């Protein structure tokens, strides 16, 4: 397999509302739900899969079949030699289009160290967001403003006092194009009217401080671990004076005009995102597995041995064997790349 594959809508069932923005972005209608998993080798865990959905819900389907099966049949062709050997045939990357129709719960995600110690997983869930669309007053909450102690958090959770949780956090209005980095442990919540491309480690581990309003009990909110252990996932440091760590500045790639790296070096071990802004021709610096979200304009995508037209709303998964990609035309795209290995 050397050609990129075009991906259709891949909504997964989740407990919160939203999704109209994904239809608008893709130019489709009639699908529901706020999350569309793109180029995914990851299935929704059985514990949170509603009845009636296949066990591999979440895994992308392509015109050639399940992406997970395609990659399993040719791991080196899809992932390249190094990545194929790094995580037992997993890409290490999950990309979502996420369109929040209501505020998501205040939650955080386990780190790799916590996931390895307590959840039997190589991966935690560090994530990063690139805002695709935002209503006028759209906002997110990211990290605590000032340091809190565990007793504060325990009390807010026991009382399900979301007002106090949100008041203690950094509330940020967002605009399209903005990039936010959400390391494991950081308490966060996405507000209604925010649509993002999200890059993350390929798990669904969340600890939900704010859960009863979403119909979830303490067992579901703590990954079955109970609050004593689950509380230790939260980063309770204050971020008011260090928000720049969460709002990375784009970096130009030396010698590659038209491409910027969107997340800081701290993210490289989890995922990388290149913003391509092509007005003519842009060639990416290296070949490798990629998930491409075309965010603006139209043009052509070329690879070794072929080409296809691309336009805003198109999503693709690219095998390493496609070689370095080249964009032509007036087109913008986010090229999502797995962790550096
Ligand atoms: O379903 P969960 O794990 O509660 O989280 C809801 C969503 O919030 C995010 O962590 C974004 O904050 C998404 O990755 C996730 O799908």
Automatic annotation (TrEMBL):
UniProt key word Isomerase: yes
Query: Can you provide one Gene Ontology molecular function annotated for this UniProt record?
Result: isomerase activity
Which superkingdom heads the taxonomic lineage of this protein's source? Bacteria
- InterPro entries from the UniProt entry: RmlC-like_jellyroll (IPR014710), RmlC_Cupin_sf (IPR011051)
CDD domains listed in its UniProt record: cupin_PMI_type_I_N_bac
Cited Gene3D superfamilies: Jelly Rolls (2.60.120.10)
Task: Provide the alphabetized UniProt keywords.
Answer: Isomerase
What protein name does the entry list?
Mannose-6-phosphate isomerase
Q: Which organism is it from?
A: Phytohabitans flavus
User: What taxonomic classification does the UniProt entry list for its organism?
Assistant: Bacteria, Bacillati, Actinomycetota, Actinomycetes, Micromonosporales
